[in-house]
Amino acid sequence: MGKEKVLTKKLIDQILKKPPQEDDSYDSFTEIEDAAAVYLSEKVKAVPTLSLNGLASMSDVAAAAFGKLDCCQQPNFFLYLDGLKTISDKGLRDLAKFQGSLSLGGLKQLSDAGAKALASHKGGGLRLCGLSNLSESAAKNLSGYFKSKNKVARSSTWSTQFTGHYFNFQI
């Protein structure tokens, strides 16, 4: 197993002091402290994306913090969490409150409750390209999300890129 690298408030301050073009340092972290997630969600406002693709899991506290992230200064704000393999249903409910676009490409499966939580996402796009296992009920919940976004979804195999929405799973 690889070496764990934990993102802390102190490290966030160091990264934020760098010029913006060097601000891609967050992907190398495999964990984030809850206090650091809250702090980062309060500090990051003027960048178009926040990429935390190194995180394999996320606590409910961190998910709630990122769900409240204020991206109003950047209407096309994208939160990349493509390394996430696990997150609780509560975490997904809180993350779904995020008003920008969410990328959760590392999730291989969703519970019915998790799918229902993500279907409530009112922000920009929702990227779920890693899904490979989904119940019929979860698929129906997610199809409601895409219908609400006026997108057309195909049945049987869904592997479609909608405008700002990515979906890939079998039903």
Structure description:
The protein has helices at residues 9-16, 34-43, 60-67, 89-95, 112-119, 136-148, and strands at residues 6-7, 31-32, 49-51, 78-80, 101-103, 109-110, 126-128, 133-134, 157-162, 165-170. The protein is globular and about 45 Å long. Mean pLDDT is 80; it is low at 151-166. Helix content is 32%, strand content 19%. By secondary structure, the protein is of the alpha/beta class. The protein contains six helices and ten strands, in the order βαβαβαβαββαββαββ. The strands form three sheets. It has a six-stranded mixed sheet, with no helix packed on it.
Unreliable runs, pLDDT <50, ≥5 residues? Answer: 151-166
Q: Strand order of the main beta sheet, please?
A: 3-4-5-7-10-9
CA-atom Rg in angstroms: 16 Å
Silhouette:
globular
What series of H and E elements makes up the topology? EHEHEHEHEEHEEHEE
Kindly state the mean pLDDT as a whole number?
80
Topology, element by element:
Layout: E1 6-7, H1 9-16, E2 31-32, H2 34-43, E3 49-51, H3 60-67, E4 78-80, H4 89-95, E5 101-103, E6 109-110, H5 112-119, E7 126-128, E8 133-134, H6 136-148, E9 157-162, E10 165-170
Parallel strand pairs: 1-2, 3-4, 4-5, 5-7, 6-8, 7-10
Antiparallel strand pairs: 9-10
Helix pairs in contact: 2-3, 3-4, 4-5, 5-6
